[in-house]
Amino acid sequence: MPQYLIVRFGPDGDLALKFQIRNSPVSQLWIDRMQSRGNYPLDHPDRFYGFGTLEQEQQRAVDYIQQCIATINSHETIIHRPFEYTQDCLNYMHNIFERYHGLLDQQTSSYWLGAPDLIRKALAELNLAVHRCESVAKETHPRVVCTWFGMPKTCVLDLDLQDRYGEWQINFGTVYHNYCEIGKTTEDLANDNDRFIADEAFKPFGHYSADFNIQFSNQDLSLKCEKIQKYIDEHYDFFLAQGITSVYNVQARPTRFPVADLIYNGNQKQLLQDIAARQWVYEANLE
Questions:
Q1: Is 186 left (phi over 0), alpha (psi -120 to 50) or beta?
Q2: pTM score, two decimals?
Q3: CA 193 from chain center: how many Å?
């Protein structure tokens, strides 16, 4: 059984970080998916957030989303609102993605079926572009996201395991299961004060894959509870229909599911600088 995750950063992979895999059921499930990723390519190896200056991150985010919008509308104008760097506009863009891209297993709309590959790709990337803009607007904590293109999202993390192994603290250098639903969690909806809330838009953490994210900060997620509870109360009927009345419901908690921890004794600030200079995942493997 693999004991470590090795991630190499930079165009030549010259910076290697080693992570000790935890001995837990949620880690074992993740290992199984990592070992099954086969020939699926690493998707967007440049998914680094919060490592540049605010100005650099803003420009990168705006260029990305405007490119997606222009490409999508070159096929058919479905985005009728000019881009503004506001949360309401980003919520609108995310709603466009959900409506025209479809859910993981429901990509059957006439638009999707009739769109060429270039447009499908731009529509899929609109989701990433929205989240990059949101991250910059909130001055996100540094993190790296690794996903595998085309790998089926068929496995679901049992609610009992979520209850037992979800953690309320994000730790520097810890690797977590990545959210891979198409939609938003209660935490996301509350953070964005999303008025486009709908049944198809609300997706608590459920499916998991080989996908993971590495956090390079420390955060107390329990500090989000008051805001999330307020949002639940403001949309009481909607959440009641989902069986949720409290932020402490397992499907409403702002918890994360850890799988591995960084083995590193050096200076954290220097490490962040080293990663910032190498914003590319060369490879990620188990040992």
A1: alpha
A2: 0.82
A3: 18
Domain boundary among 141, 156, 187: 141
Question: How many domains would you assign to the chain?
Answer: 2
DSSP state of 235: T
Domain that holds residue 75: 53-141
Looking at the structure, tell me whether residues 230 and 152 fall in a common domain.
yes
**Which secondary structure element, helix H or strand E, spans residue 137, and what is its range?**
helix 117-137
Is the distance from CB of 286 to CB of 31 less than 8 angstroms? yes
Q: Of all residues in the chain, what percent carry a pLDDT higher than 70? A: 95
Averaged confidence pLDDT in the chain? 91
Cα atoms in the Cβ-side hemisphere of radius 13 Å centred on 52: 17
The residue out of 124, 141, 158 marking a domain boundary is: 141
In the chain, how long is the greatest CA-to-CA distance? 54
**Hey, what's the torsion of the CAs at 268, 269, 275, 278, to 10 degrees?**
-150
Structure tokens at 28: 């074992």
Together in a domain, 38 and 158 = yes
List the structure tokens of 287: 């040992």
Instruction: Examine the domain organization and report whether 57 and 21 are in the same domain.
Output: no
Q: What is the pLDDT of residue 10?
A: 97
**pLDDT for the residue 248:** 97
State how beta strands 207-208 and 155-156 pair: antiparallel
pLDDT confidence tier of residue 87, bands split at 50, 70 and 90:
confident
CA distance linking residue 252 with residue 270, whole number of Å: 36
